[in-house]
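Bacterio-opsin activator HTH domain protein
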Amino acid sequence: MARVSAAEDVTAYSMSKSVDPHAPKHVTEEFSVPAVDELSEEIEETELEKTFTDGSSAIYRFERVSDRNCPCECIEQHGSPVVDVRGERGTLYVVFHAADREDLRQVIETVGEFHPQMEVRRLVQSRAEDEDGSKSLVFFDKSVLTDRQQQVLTTAHELGYFDHPKGANAGEVADELDIATATFIEHLSAAQRKLLNSILDTE
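Tokens:
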């Protein structure tokens, strides 16, 4: 879907797939695009077949060999069904529900192993009761952070700035980012404030 969206400049939605029980390595997938977008019959050696149109959307089908490197299959092998997929401008967006934090960690590690450009865009915690009977909802939209704030947080985390004991101090992280220590602290404070606003539900 991501390759189709990039090659044809369309947004592809609602992917579904089926596996032949007699040939489990053979996968058939379908996705929909607006009916006004007529796709090529072949994109990057993948043959597309239009199977249905209702005037507003069109369904295309293609076949492929199953491999464990597909993002959706990386997620599903950990028991987390994919609930929504779309391809937009060459990027694949996938929504899934993890049973707990350990499952989420494993999914992120597996997808990241084969797709290092992966990004987590949103995390939502269920309203289910915790062990102590309390309820909590944690939602964070990564897009509220600027690119620079994301870079600062990522670099600080990778260098162990948040570890105890610290793997790097503010000056060392700033040097890695090639910015002044005061600038690093300013960006980090702004990013942390946004994170806390989401967690604590404050403005």
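The chain has a mean pLDDT of 80.
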